[in-house]
Amino acid sequence: MNTPGSSLSQFIEEYPLYSRFGTDQPIETADLDNLAFNFFCQKEKEVQPFRLSIPSSNGNGIHPSSQPHHSAEGFTEIFTGVCQSCEEYKITVVINAASGEEPPRYFIRKIGQDPAPGSTAVKLPDDVAGFLDDEGRECYRKALSNLEFDYGVGTLAYIKKMLANGVDRIIEALSNTYSDAGGKFAEAFNSYKQDGQRTRFIEEATPHFPESLKEHGASSLLVLYDALSLSVQELTEKECIKKSKDIDTLFRYMTRKLTAEIQETSQKKVNGKYFMRYS
Ligand SMILES: [Zn+2]
Predict the structure, then answer these.
(1) In terms of CATH architecture, what is 126-265?
(2) How far is the centre of ligand 1, averaged over its atoms, from the C-alpha of 50 (Å)?
(3) Which of 110, 190, 209, 210 stands the most exposed, by the fewest C-beta atoms within 10 Å?
């Protein structure tokens, strides 16, 4: 059974409507049935554990046949999420899974949600939000709201404001928390700020990254740092959306790994069944 923290739970909890998530194998309705996730209960006014179920066994499905589909062709189904705390508050999520010609071959997306996700209801994951102050979190929420409506320029503008806040904190964490390595990381980063030599930075800084970030940490950090100087005006709507999603993915990746390292809970790794990414 999926537990909160699996990739599918995160998909339900955090990601904006209409965004396609590529997966490496077809998703079936059974994968979502009984899925545990965390969500804001409007009755209790706090985030609670929820559980997803498929109501289409009683004929509520969108398909004319009203049978849950679970073939590689995909499905569009209405799911109900019930708060496990009060057992009364419910949300409805319409999920579409399909496959396409171009990679990623399989994808899943939320195409409807009731009550509608409001900007204050956009739930930022704790381990990610922990790297932002109040203003940064507000910018992040606005970026995700803009993303829901496919507003590229707006999304990227808010993502950049969010990053201005978040990147500093990431650098702070890398510079301080790991004492000896922290000092060497800070040194390498300062040289990069002066000479802009990416390859050198990656070579010099990588050994001083925490274990779980050794592989992609240095280059991910550079992408985030360089995104601060992106010019929104020079990009098309489509390019803004693409960049925003890449930045969002990397920011989540880095902050999650860092939080896990800091809390030393990295041994408690949660591996979802699917490898998911924006497409
Ligand atoms: Zn509740």
Answers:
(1) Up-down Bundle (1.20)
(2) 8
(3) 190
